[in-house]
Design goal:
single chain, 373 residues, Rossmann fold, SH3 type barrels, Elongation Factor Tu (Ef-tu), domain 3, 3 domains, four-stranded mixed β-sheet, 28% strand
Length: 373
């Protein structure tokens, strides 16, 4: 229970369905010296549990979160990539150490406030298939809130212990249920924070832990138009914050006489430069990408080439694509292979950011995903 309305209504629905429900707030690492809302979230989760008359506990996962999520996030930014901490938090914390402890405490299932649906279906592959079942992740009823994008690293062993009760409801219906049953957070705004840390100033967080290293901002033809304080503080496709660090006289005006905005299209860590371009620049778009760390919810790699749909960021409309395998020997590990994928989109994609997740779909089922290289 995060203190938000979604996990609170998940607890409400399961209690009304007859489950023996216990509320747990996960205490996770928060950067010292940077204001966040974790304390008030925990207090709200306790209030909701009291209202529902269910036991409530706080489990401390600060060490695991710092190592497996925060350190990963900082490491990826420093390497010039744009990480997805929520994906790692789900894999390693919520459905990792939290699930493990819950099972050890005698739980049958864990529940979160994710907008997703899990189903058990007959496995039709191989001999004696009629005796086997597998778990699939499906889109939520509320397609605008669907969070399967953040769950692509989950496994069959994890999914068999998962319930996602609000996946069958829209956000509006969830709030209506919370209000109907008097939950104290029925009108609480949605969190925009990183995983369970809560809302924080992300730019301030990065600048606290990563070094400042000034360098030039250049256009695609090499013209210097500004100065940055570290390539790792900027992501592909970013516009916000660039205007104030650019030379005013270098700005381009559009037909209306307004200043033309620039977007980050590339970073060169060796030269310590950020490359920018206008919205119309072809450098901001690409039709193909390479992805690594392929993971499939079914546990079985599909046959390639595979025609499906994909999204390269949360809430993006799914895009038609084809996946080709690029499996090759991994010399760093004996008898191992690294599975890379080449994804070709039907239409060009804007601001493809290395380090982010690409997630694949077929109809209403989420198949799995990979990390954009």
């Amino acid at each position: 229970m995060s203190g938000g309305v979604d996990s609170s209504v998940a607890a409400l629905l399961l209690k009304r369905a007859g489950y023996d429900v216990r509320g747990v707030y996960m205490k996770e690492w928060a950067p010292p010296g940077i204001a966040c809302e974790a304390g008030s979230d925990r207090a709200m989760a306790a209030r909701v549990a009291a209202h529902l008359n269910i036991p409530f506990e706080v489990w401390d996962f600060r060490r695991a979160y710092k190592k497996q999520v925060a350190d990963y996030m900082l490491r990826e930014y420093k390497a010039g990539r744009t990480p997805n901490p929520d994906v790692m938090c789900n894999r390693d914390i919520k459905f990792g150490v939290f699930l493990k402890r819950a099972l050890a405490r005698g739980a049958d299932y864990i529940t979160t406030g994710h907008y997703a649906r899990v189903a058990s279906i007959a496995d039709t592959r191989g001999p004696h298939a009629e005796k086997r079942r597998r778990f699939v992740l499906r889109n939520a009823k509320d397609t605008n809130k669907d969070q399967t994008y953040f769950l692509w690293m989950l496994t069959q062993d994890q999914l068999k212990h998962c319930l996602f009760p609000i996946g069958d409801y829209t956000k509006q219906e969830v709030r209506a249920l919370a209000k109907k049953y008097g939950l104290p957070n029925w009108d609480k705004k949605d969190s925009q924070g990183v995983c369970f840390i809560g809302k924080l100033n992300f730019g301030q967080f990065l600048r606290k832990y990563l070094p400042h290293k000034k360098g030039n901002i250049v256009t695609t033809n090499g013209k210097v138009i500004g100065e940055h304080d570290g390539t790792w503080f900027y992501t592909i496709g970013q516009r916000r914050g660039l205007t104030r660090i650019m030379n005013y006289e270098s700005r381009i005006k559009n037909e209306k006489g307004d200043m033309q905005p620039y977007y980050v299209i590339g970073k060169d860590r060796k030269k310590n430069i950020i490359i920018v371009a206008e919205e119309s620049s072809p450098h901001l778009y690409q039709k193909e990408l390479i992805a690594t760390n392929a993971h499939w919810i079914s546990g079985i790699t599909p046959k390639f080439p595979l025609a499906c749909k994909a999204r390269i960021r949360y809430r993006q409309l799914v895009q038609q694509c084809a996946i080709e395998s690029r499996t090759h020997a991994d010399k760093t590990r004996k008898n191992a292979e690294t599975k890379n994928m080449r994804i070709i989109f039907r239409k060009v994609q804007r601001a493809v950011a290395p380090g982010q997740s690409i997630v694949f779909y077929k109809r209403n089922e989420m198949l799995g995903g990979g990390i954009i290289a």
